[in-house]
Design goal:
By secondary structure, this protein is of the alpha/beta class. Helix content is 42%, strand content 15%. It is built from 11 helices and 12 strands. Strands 1, 2, 3, 4, 5 and 11 form a 6-stranded mixed sheet that branches. Strand 7, helix 5 and strand 8 form a beta-alpha-beta unit. Helix 1 runs antiparallel to helix 9 and helix 4 packs across helix 11. The two termini are 32 Å apart.
């Protein structure tokens, strides 16, 4: 099997115990004989199915498309910098590019999670449409400009699952005091429902779940979640992922390094990111389907829907969380308005196209 397209769980290597490489031992990006080397840091364990493999493929695409003129030296989480420090690493010049997710930067940039996902927000294709055609990219560029960063969509893990729980959640009361790993705006929603959201780097989640430091977690979809081993710790797996209906990965590029590239290399980087975005989304759809079946059939995971009362409480809490952006800084308010405009434009079409077709197709089963 082409290892560019899939990776087995046996190939997944955790870096939770790997020592960090000192930045002081690394030289500045090599520029000789027309060759440029960028340091490429990520928030993911090495070769994690989904985003970890996307990062590797992105480096391979750029190397191949540029005929070796631009190469990316890849560092998994904690091999150069910790998973949740890649934003600063690129901003401060420790690396030239990172692969991560914008929802990790909410504490620094309030509106950053909009560019991964917001609760009850845009679905994957809707999100791509907003970024590419609805003004989202320009707003994203503006948001990160003060940090010297150029963002691009680079991979997508698709629809997310609702999360893994140690005990069933049957009522809103079951969220009271629940310690759940959920970064981004989804965490704020569950906090309003009584939970205690925790932000952990991906490589730290399973140990926290096994030890009881947290009671529940969300991550991505079945493909990546199974590779992370969550099913070994808990058995209750909920859907839908209302907190994160899209899984856009972001490439964070040093603006100064970007500006130093020739225009053809800039085009190569942009189009490599676009290619990986489409490829990874298709991969997520394909692999999530088989992984979900394996979790149920082989590992006896209890896959269940959130009760409607919980979804209703989450919708109400989401309205309160999102409304706060109307009174934040001007840029956050404009991002919020732009995304809402995209939902209003795309929603009716999504209803009569995808939603209507899937419902009609189900009736033939």
């Amino acid at each position: 099997m082409d290892n560019h397209k899939s990776i087995s769980r046996r190939q997944f290597v955790s870096v939770s115990t790997a020592g960090a490489v000192s930045a002081a031992t690394l030289s500045a990006p090599a520029i000789a004989s027309g060759h440029i080397e960028w340091r490429f840091v990520t928030s993911w364990p090495k070769n994690l199915p989904g985003p970890g493999v996307t990062a590797r493929r992105l480096a391979e695409r750029i190397d191949a498309m540029s005929d070796g003129r631009l190469t990316l030296r890849l560092f998994a989480a904690s091999e150069l910098v910790p998973a949740l420090e890649v934003f600063d690493a690129v901003s401060n010049g420790v690396a030239e590019i990172a692969h991560t997710a914008s929802l990790f930067w909410q504490g620094r940039v309030a509106a950053a999670p909009f560019f991964t996902a917001v609760p009850f927000g845009l679905a994957p294709m809707e999100h791509i449409s907003w970024i590419e055609h609805g003004g989202g990219q320009a707003l994203w560029d503006e948001l990160y400009a003060p940090f010297g960063l150029k963002p691009l969509m680079a991979g997508n893990t698709g629809f997310q699952m609702g999360g893994w729980y140690r005990r069933p959640v049957n009522t809103v009361e079951d969220f009271k005091g629940l310690k759940i790993r959920m970064p981004g705006l989804g965490g704020q929603v569950l906090e309003r429902m009584g939970a205690s959201p925790v932000t952990l780097a991906p490589g730290e989640i399973l140990p926290a779940l096994q030890s009881g430091v947290i009671d529940a977690t969300e991550f991505l979809g079945p493909f990546s979640d199974m590779a992370m081993g969550f099913h070994r710790a808990v058995k209750h797996y909920y859907w839908p992922g209302f907190h994160e209906p899209n899984g856009t990965g972001e490439a964070l590029i040093s603006k100064s390094a970007w500006d130093d590239l020739d225009s053809d290399l800039q085009a190569i980087v942009e189009n490599a990111c676009r290619a990986e975005n489409a490829f990874a989304l298709a991969e997520a759809e394909w692999q999530n389907a088989s992984a979900l079946k394996q979790l149920v059939d082989e590992f006896q995971v209890n896959v269940r829907p959130y009760p409607e009362a919980i979804l209703e409480a989450a919708r109400n809490a989401t309205k309160l969380v999102m409304a706060e952006f109307e009174t934040k800084d001007d840029l956050s308010a404009r991002i919020y308005a732009s995304m809402n405009s995209a939902i209003e434009r795309l929603g009716p079409w999504s209803t009569v196209s995808q939603a209507a077709f899937f419902n009609a197709r189900r009736q033939t089963d």
